[in-house]
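Please fill in the sequence for the structure shown.

STRUCTURE ENCODING:
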């Protein structure tokens, strides 16, 4: 599957104040995720951002809020984003057939969202360097299962360069600067 800016939407899953600090290597997760989300913003790819039970897990962390300013917000109680009517409405409103997934936790909310999206006919790009879990073996198992279910396992840089398509693209210099 080849992706283009007019066929993809990003879903940033549960980058929340009480969850992210518990994730294995949270600094690296946030660094990669910020690059991805800032690059997608440069490319004008829509972003939907979910928050799992914000009363308990808090708001989206400032590092992610900063780069997703106009993201479509979605609160949920189900682990899969697909279980939220607000999410389904937001996703359907952007009318894109491929979904870039990033966030936490890889083996719970991100994986369940991926499997539900696949069942609904969406193409899923599961970003290995922009998803995290508290334990490394949970993330490894999530990546393995996501791929077996039909997700493409990708990286931030891989996605951004594929969407750029050419070094002559208007956003090439700004995205190259993000990746340095």
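FILLED IN BY: designer on duty
SEQUENCE:
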């Amino acid at each position: 599957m080849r992706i283009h800016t007019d066929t993809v939407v990003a879903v940033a899953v549960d980058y929340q104040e009480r969850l992210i600090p518990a994730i294995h290597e949270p600094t690296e997760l946030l660094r990669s995720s910020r690059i991805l989300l800032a690059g997608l913003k440069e490319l004008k790819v829509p972003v939907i951002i979910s928050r799992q039970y914000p009363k308990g897990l808090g708001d989206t962390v400032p590092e992610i809020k900063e780069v997703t300013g106009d993201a479509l917000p979605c609160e949920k109680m189900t682990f899969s984003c697909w279980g939220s009517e607000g999410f389904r409405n937001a996703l359907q409103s952007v009318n894109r057939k491929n979904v870039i997934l990033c966030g936490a936790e890889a083996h719970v909310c991100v994986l369940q969202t991926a499997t539900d999206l696949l069942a609904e006919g969406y193409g899923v790009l599961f970003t290995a360097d922009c998803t995290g879990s508290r334990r490394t073996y949970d993330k490894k198992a999530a990546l393995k299962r996501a791929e077996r279910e039909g997700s493409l396992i990708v990286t931030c840089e891989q996605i951004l360069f594929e969407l750029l398509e050419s070094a002559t693209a208007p956003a090439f210099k700004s995205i190259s600067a993000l990746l340095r």
